[in-house]
Design goal:
By secondary structure, the protein is an alpha/beta fold. The chain contains 12 helices and 10 strands. The protein is globular, with a radius of gyration of 20 Å. Helices cover about 45% and strands about 10% of the residues. Helix 3 runs parallel beside helix 4, helix 4 packs parallel to helix 5 and helix 9 packs across helix 10. The structure holds D-xylulose and manganese (II) ion.
Length: about 350
């Protein structure tokens, strides 16, 4: 095997999903958390991503002490298996308290619920040994624009982030932007927005981002450029590689399955910026196709990792000197074909 250092891989329990979509039921039987963890370990992934209620199920009904107890038991288990927790993310889009948004709900009680739940997620992250709190701001945006005051909502987001930063001096917030779905428009749709709002918080150095390939494509952006942009600020703290066919619902396809050249460009961007050298993980936020049979349940993850590793080889064997000559001659026509030939191989 060629040397693929420094990359370490992870996924979340939700990535072994059962195939339900808005138009039909599940197509695979549900599997237990234990089964998912065993699959992760068996296939050589180094860490698991956790929503707060993946780590502590039915979290809303539990006391702080109970949450700590269950998180501590999970940490012991992960340690015993030699696995890490990559991040914790508060799931702020399921509860009746987040129907109108979480940090930006028009109801102050609901905004408080979102903050309280985020602080509990930080407690869980600390116990699980990760300093990354991922914030996918699912319902922070508008569906009916006049129902919200966007200026005020930005202020509420900053207030919420400030409370999280104050709650734990080590926690880092990794904002995962997505421009739409479930909202018509999100308040933080791109990496530029995530890094800009960081500057309004009490500790900008602890507010960074997570790039998901599909989310960047949905924003009409090139995920590779988003990687270079975030890493120019030293703020790419996590990564959800996957793929997406154009501007439609979020597809979470296997990495590289639709835009292979873009996947190559993303890997090149990671390589040139040294992603992973400060302990960052490569996570695959991919889902099995609805048609996938239970016996092929891991294939979307294994295929994504295989494609990623093959593209690392492609990036490392790309003839940079020859490419630079073509760039110096402004012969981008030949450069374009050179990339295609390199990807096609012999
Ligand atoms: C949603 C999405 C989430 C986050 C974690 O599109 O990507 O799974 O990654 O909350
Ligand atoms: Mn994601």
């Amino acid at each position: 095997m060629p040397n693929h250092a420094p990359y370490k891989f992870c996924f979340g329990p939700w990535n072994l999903s059962e195939g339900a979509d808005p138009y039909g039921p599940t197509t695979r039987p549900p599997q237990s958390f234990d089964w998912k963890l065993a699959q992760l370990k068996k296939h050589g992934f180094a860490a698991m991503m956790f929503h707060d209620d993946d780590a502590v199920p039915e979290i809303d009904g539990k006391s702080e002490a109970q949450i700590r107890k269950e998180a501590t038991a999970l940490r012991k288990r992960l340690d015993g298996e030699g696995l890490a927790a990559e991040m914790v993310a508060p799931r702020l889009w399921f509860s009746p308290m987040t129907i109108d948004g979480a940090y930006t709900s028009n109801d102050p009680k609901h905004r408080q619920y979102a903050i309280d739940r985020s602080l509990r997620s930080i407690d869980i992250a600390k116990i699980l040994g990760t300093d990354i709190l991922v914030l996918w701001l699912a319902r922070e945006g508008s569906y009916i624009r006049e129902s919200k005051n966007a200026r005020r909502c930005i202020g509420w987001l900053v207030e919420a982030f400030d409370q999280m930063l104050a709650h734990d001096k080590k926690i880092r917030l990794a904002i995962e932007p997505k421009p739409n779905e479930p909202m018509d428009h999100a308040y933080l749709p791109t990496i530029g927005h995530a890094l800009a709002i960081a500057q309004l918080t009490r500790d900008p150095n602890r507010v960074g981002c997570l790039i998901e390939s599909a989310h960047a494509i949905l924003a009409g952006l090139d995920p590779a450029d988003e990687i270079d942009f975030a890493m120019s600020f030293g703020k790419l703290w996590s990564l959800h590689l996957n793929d997406q066919n154009g501007l439609k619902y979020d597809q979470d396809r296997p990495f590289g399955n639709t835009n292979l050249r873009s996947a190559f460009d993303q890997v090149r961007a990671l390589e040139r910026n040294g992603y992973g050298r400060r302990g960052e993980y490569v996570c695959f936020d991919v889902h099995p196709f609805r048609t996938t049979k239970p016996e092929h349940w891991m294939d979307h993850l294994l295929n994504s990792r295989r494609t990623f590793l093959r593209l690392v080889e492609k990036a490392r064997t790309f003839d940079e000197a020859a490419a630079n000559e073509l760039i110096a001659e402004r012969n981008y026509q030949a450069l374009d074909q050179m990339v295609i030939e390199h990807l096609l191989g012999q």
